[in-house]
């Protein structure tokens, strides 16, 4: 007889700044980043002892129950069996750690605390396991908690995603990036997906502020609240969110 279902919250993360500091011999990129947890979250319903993975919600399109899904990989990593249903509210491929947040929720449920092993599944997973605000280094496994700072963030969600591995390959082919650039993956992401540059210009014209790319994904963000920005950016979804401890 299976256990009763358990509900887990999987908050999104936002990378406020990101420097690529090198590459390990095994090919993994080393980073130095500041990440924060946001109040947007997926909701996982976990039924221990059963099997299966399913999705619904506004951001579920295109997701499958493959063995490569980060939830499936997290379950195998911590030696647990469960049926998991995910209500997807975090965009896939948007740089907000949607899959990583879900895997981190599984690890927290299983009381699995090996950040280094978790980072080999996904570089954002260790931070999502810890949450709050932190400096993140190594390949994502070195987490240095920082004091919480309450701030509003406006996210501009675009109608397409960007592949993180492809962005890193493009980064390797570019000239060295200045240390003064807030997100050193931004230029590479725009090479991979030229529509990002078009949207950056549109957002700057509509808001009067320069947006920053969320990690390697397809979400642009602005510091502060721009509640009416969506009216000036047809085709995008604008969400005002806040950091959480």
Could you explain how this protein is built, in words?
With 245 residues, the protein is an alpha+beta fold. It contains 7 helices and 10 strands. The chain has helices at residues 70-77, 98-109, 115-121, 125-130, 164-173, 186-192, 195-207, and strands at residues 6-23, 29-48, 53-56, 82-87, 133-138, 142-145, 152-157, 212-213, 219-223, 237-244. Strands 1, 2, 3, 4, 5, 6, 7, 8, 9 and 10 form a 10-stranded mixed sheet that branches. β3, α1 and β4 form a beta-alpha-beta unit. α1 packs parallel to α2 (98-109) and α5 crosses α6 (186-192).
SSE map:
Elements: E1 6-23, E2 29-48, E3 53-56, H1 70-77, E4 82-87, H2 98-109, H3 115-121, H4 125-130, E5 133-138, E6 142-145, E7 152-157, H5 164-173, H6 186-192, H7 195-207, E8 212-213, E9 219-223, E10 237-244
Parallel strand pairs: 3-4
Antiparallel strand pairs: 1-2, 2-4, 2-5, 2-10, 5-6, 7-9, 7-10, 8-9
Helix pairs in contact: 1-2, 5-6
β-sheet strand percentage: 25-35%
Span between termini: 37 Å
What is the number of beta strands? 10
Radius of gyration: 18 Å
Overall shape: globular
Low-confidence segments: none
Q: Major sheet, described briefly?
A: 10 strands, mixed
Order of helices and strands: EEEHEHHHEEEHHHEEE
Relative helix content: 25-40%
Give a short summary of the structure.
This protein is of the alpha+beta class and 245 residues long. The protein is built from 7 helices and 10 strands. It has helices at 70-77, 98-109, 115-121, 125-130, 164-173, 186-192, 195-207, and strands at residues 6-23, 29-48, 53-56, 82-87, 133-138, 142-145, 152-157, 212-213, 219-223, 237-244.
């Amino acid at each position: 007889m299976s256990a009763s279902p358990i509900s887990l919250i999987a908050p999104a993360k936002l990378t406020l700044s990101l420097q690529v500091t090198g590459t390990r011999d095994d090919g993994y990129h080393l980073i130095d980043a500041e990440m924060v947890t946001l109040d947007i979250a997926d909701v996982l319903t976990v039924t221990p002892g059963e099997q299966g993975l399913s999705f619904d919600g506004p951001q579920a399109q295109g997701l499958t129950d493959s063995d490569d899904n980060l939830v499936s990989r997290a379950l195998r990593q911590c030696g647990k069996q469960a049926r998991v249903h995910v209500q997807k509210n975090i965009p896939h491929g948007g740089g907000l750690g949607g899959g990583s947040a879900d895997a981190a929720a599984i690890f927290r449920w299983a009381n699995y605390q090996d950040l280094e092993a978790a980072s080999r599944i996904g570089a954002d997973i260790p931070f999502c396991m810890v949450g709050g605000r932190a400096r993140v280094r190594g390949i994502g496994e070195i987490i240095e908690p920082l004091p919480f700072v309450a701030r509003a963030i406006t996210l501009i969600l675009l109608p397409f995603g960007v592949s993180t591995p492809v962005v890193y390959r493009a980064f390797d082919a570019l000239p060295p990036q200045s240390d003064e650039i807030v997100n050193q993956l931004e230029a590479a992401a725009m090479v991979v997906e030229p529509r990002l540059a078009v949207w950056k210009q549109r957002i700057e014209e509509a808001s009067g502020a320069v947006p920053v790319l969320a990690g390697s994904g397809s979400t642009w963000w602005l510091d502060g609240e721009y509640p009416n920005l969506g009216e000036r950016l047809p085709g995008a979804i604008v969400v005002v969110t806040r950091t959480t401890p």
